[in-house]
Amino acid sequence: MKRRSDSKLKTLPDPVQDQLYAIYERQGGEEALAWLEEKHGVKSNTGSLSKFAAWFPFSRPLEMVARHASQFKAAAKANPKIKDDAEQAAEYTQIAFEQLALQQQNLKGFVSLQKVRLKKVDQRHDARRISLLEKKAAQLDEAEGVMKDETLNEAEKAQRMRSLFGMG
Amino acid sequence: MSPLTIRRTILSVLGSAKPFAVPAETLLAEVNRLVRPAIKSVDLAEHLTALQGQQMIDYIADPVAPDDATARKWHIKEAGEAAFRS
After folding, report:
1. Comparing B5 with B77, which gets the higher pLDDT?
2. Which of A23, A120, A131, B41 is the one with CA 20 to 30 A from A147?
3. Could you tell me the domains of chain B?
């Protein structure tokens, strides 16, 4: 079976995925694809790369959070007020890491909750569908009984059928 | 899931967060994203103690509640990284 092109990107070694995503973010898709082919001999396309780029940040969430926090650290070091206080900068960065991790987990929790809610709605729809089908089956059984009832004449059968299906 | 697999998962999560320390609650959520069936915080605490005993990980206690195990932040050590990569 031929592997999907975005699956191919997702199974690249971790360091290659990291670099690919970094180039994609900094320089764009065309540069990233050119780099991938030139350095690793892997051909792909913009569609697959877009799917990969959407998936990558969620593939190793804490790593992504750590990366963002490290960017924060670099920014903090550049700030003249705190650049000389390495301990304070480290503390700030740790706080940033924890907050980002929390946000990231809340997002995942939110998505999971929505999935559970959708599942419950689906289950309610299924229950309603089954109930309607059961009602329909009971009506058909009753209609069959009416048609086979030899004590009723044709007019009476027609009347009972109309009443049974709510047409009377 | 075997204790070995769970411990490797813990090392992997802490390794991915390096150089930062991961609060126990976040660590539990991340580990449970990767292992089935999900583990409880008491199980996690057991695995963490075992890994700490092997000098693979360590924790930073909360200055306000130094004895509160749930408020600890865990980080990987060199031996842990080496074990995970082996």
Report:
1. B77
2. A131
3. 3-85 (1.10.10.10)
If one compares B74 and A58, the residue with the highest pLDDT of the two is B74
Identify which has the larger pLDDT, B7 or A160: B7
Task: Please report residues of A whose CB lies closer than 8 A to that of B22.
Answer: 62, 101
Count of other CB atoms within 10 angstroms of residue B45? 16
State how far the Cα of B21 lies from the Cα of A135, in Å rounded to an integer.
60
B26, A101 Cβ separation under 8 angstroms = yes
Torsion sign over Cα A102, A107, A111, A113: positive
Mean pLDDT score across all residues of chain B: 89
d(CA A10, CA A28): 18
Task: Provide the 3-class DSSP secondary structure of residue B72.
Answer: coil
Interface test with B, best of A60, A62, A70, A98 (most B CBs within 10 A): A62
Please give the ipTM for the structure prediction: 0.77
